[in-house]
Amino acid sequence: MDWRQLWEICSAPDNVPIVGLIPLLAFYIYLAWRQAHANDQLIEQLEGDAALAKTHHRKTWPFKPGWQKEVHVWPFLLRIEFLAAIIVTIILMVWSITLNAPLEEPANPNLTMNPAKAPWYFLGLQEMLVYFDPWIAGVVMPTMIIIGLMVIPYIDTNPLGSGYYTWKQRKFSIGTFLFGFIILWIAMIIIGTFIRGPGWQWFWPGQTWDHNRLIYEVNRDLPDIFGITSNMAKALFGAVVVGGYYLLGGFLVYSLFRRYMGKDFKRMSLLQFGITQFLLLSMVALPLKMALRLLWHIKYVWITPWFNV
Amino acid sequence: MADENIPNGKNGKVGLVDRVKEDIQALKVDIPAKAKEQIEGLKDPTKTQVYTSIFRHKHDDTPRNRALGVLSNVFLHLHPAKINRDAVRYSYTWGMGGITFFLFIILTYTGVLLMFYYHPSKVQAFRDVLYLEHDVPFGKILRNMHRWAAHLMVIGVWLHMFRVFLTGSYKKPREFNWNIGVLLLVFTLLLSFTGYLLPDDQLGFWAVTVGTNMARATPLLGHEGPFGSMLGMTPYNDVRFGLLGGSIVDANALLRSYIWHCIGIPIVASILMIVHFWRVRKDGGISGPAPVMLEAEADKPRRGPKAAGE
Prior knowledge:
The structure holds two protein chains of two kinds. By secondary structure, chain A is an all-alpha fold. Chain A is 62% helix and 1% strand. Chain B has a domain at 90-284: Up-down Bundle (Cytochrome Bc1 Complex, Chain C). Chain B is built from eleven helices and one strand; from the N terminus they run H-H-H-E-H-H-H-H-H-H-H-H. At the A-B interface, helix 2, strand 1, helix 4, helix 5 and helix 7 of A face helix 3, strand 1, helix 4, helix 5 and helix 6 of B. Strand 1 (70-72) of chain A pairs antiparallel with strand 1 (82-84) of chain B, so a sheet runs across the interface.
């Protein structure tokens, strides 16, 4: 166990935000979960008692008749904003006094940094470069993340859970978002920051970054395993595999939706459902491709003269 | 004539000396009176013309003045006068949107100060950062604050998006504002990324090299991307060349980075922020905490003609 190495990575000034982000995220997930749990209990109680549902206050916070429903922004909101501004300023001041912003040697195109890492918030994308060619990891994936986020309000047809924390009413959408945000985005950043060392090789936390380490790794392409040699056949084979993934996966999504989310499925138009299927399968394709690479050393699935997937 | 020697002056008019004497007499009465008046007035500065011209309402603690305090203030009037009593609950809102905006203000402020000491040229840039760190009074803390506020802003935007998602706040009628928010998220990352190159050190140089190398592989528009070479893309005319102003990260990339960082993206982001905040109000204020909705009510609108049974 190389504690010094671990300390060097964790205390590198630009890695401090991620070290801070982890407990911060844990805290906010806990905060959200606690409220979701309380709301879910209230919902369960009210669903079971139609008479109570008509009269009961629909929030977990107390409300008594005679209380004002609204409060003045001045002072009840502005004092919070004022306090938040002061607290953020103090945190920022203390942080700026105790920790200096990094400054390396002057830029030198002839001296490559090893590892050369993108800013921490893009390390998820850089980690994807291991599993996909740059045109997917660097261009298509970010575009799909942005478009995927933007279409969320238009494909989520579930009217429940608007304006309050809940888990039971929105299991699928919250589960999907947690998977995308925590597993695919944050965890990939953590891998890119703490695990990837020189040569972008995998170093467990506490393992010394050995700049001379060699890994004898033979990556194969999926068509090779099936003994396909001609370029034409490889291209066709890949198209069938990728197309098959989307077709079979699409069918699986359909049957899961029909069975477990019938109401949502009923509300969705064909376009809404098609986009949901496509985005969901593309999202799941990332960990699948990672597994293919990490467990079976498979580099490409689909090989054409113009692009590889 | 004898009259000319009369001190009262000629033609029966009062002479200069007497006028002065009379004025002095009057002064002894007038000025203390005015001074007294002035002191009395200072006891209540809220009645002065200067005060009332600035603050157009009284400060007594009445509901009307509480409302006016927000509505008649250009900086506060984005708020409504009143909000739902639960909407101020920090456990619901997390306050991350506001904190992100506050960090943007801090970054603008520290950023403008940094611009006084920084030349976006290959010869000067790195030296300017050294100068800031070692010679400029408070230069080091200025740069540190700018750096850490930028990181905090990225975290703040993420947590804000996380909260908005978990509370389903993107749902009707806030779909469009969620989209503005996604764009603001992208611009926040781009702001941070363009700033990364500016110290012109190894860290920024290689981070931006890695980042922009991906642009080579853009399908159709990058020289290493699928179908790029078929469309005549070379390192000297593809999308990466446009980003960097050259085929390598050099002086032009530094200048472009600087201009995007200090002028281009802040303007676009500010415009989007205006729309974002305005839409929060227009879409009915903050989304909640709303009363919980039951499964049976899912397909019935709560208000409007349908809910009334029409």
